[in-house]
Specification:
Length: 184
């Protein structure tokens, strides 16, 4: 999590450039269009996978940050909020950035390009590792956790062949993290 005024601006520049590139070139546009398969949301297995991914991310968070379940309960029930000093505009941009821009554009940037190699085991694993390393670097406040998050989200993408459940997992984790780290 980060509360920096320029962060949202730079993310918008990066993701805006990505959207422009997708719109300009036909092959990437087809690749991205193909990755938005909403039919997977009709399957019970997808929701089970989303739950498993969420709890895997939660467990990784406990292990990586050396937290216990009791400290998690204390964080979740604390009345302290890190956003008390933010203006309404800053709070809205924080929430929009974390809940909408992050899950949507990060998954478009990091998951969809690996779909080219999704059916080739070696290539997929190599690209998943590279993508997850870059995802971890982009989350510089917690690179190891970002790497693990990238692996889990890449696994969800591999199993569903759709970016929609991946965005849902990312969105759910970010909602949880807003409360978990007392941002709201």
């Amino acid at each position: 999590m980060r509360i920096q005024n320029f962060s949202l601006f730079w993310e918008m520049i990066i993701y805006g450039t990505l959207v422009c590139l997708i719109c300009i070139f036909p092959k990437p546009r087809q690749l991205y269009k193909k990755s938005f398969d909403f039919s997977v949301l009709k399957k019970f297995q997808t929701y089970l996978l989303i739950l498993i991914a969420f709890f895997t991310i939660f467990t990784a968070n406990l292990i990586i940050f050396k937290r216990s379940l009791s400290s998690t309960l204390n964080l979740l029930t604390s009345s302290y909020s890190q956003t008390m000093l933010l203006s309404d505009f800053e709070l809205v941009t924080l929430v929009v950035g974390i809940l909408i821009i992050g899950p949507v554009f990060e998954e478009l940037l990091f998951r969809v390009p690996i779909s080219i190699w999704i059916n080739r085991r070696f290539y997929f694993l190599a690209v998943l590792l590279i993508s997850s390393i870059l995802f971890g670097i982009m989350h510089s406040e917690y690179p190891v956790f970002g790497f693990v998050l990238g692996i889990v989200l890449g696994g969800v993408f591999k199993l569903t062949k759709s970016v929609v459940p991946v965005m849902l997992v990312h969105f759910l984790w970010n909602i949880f993290a807003l409360f978990y780290y007392n941002y709201i």
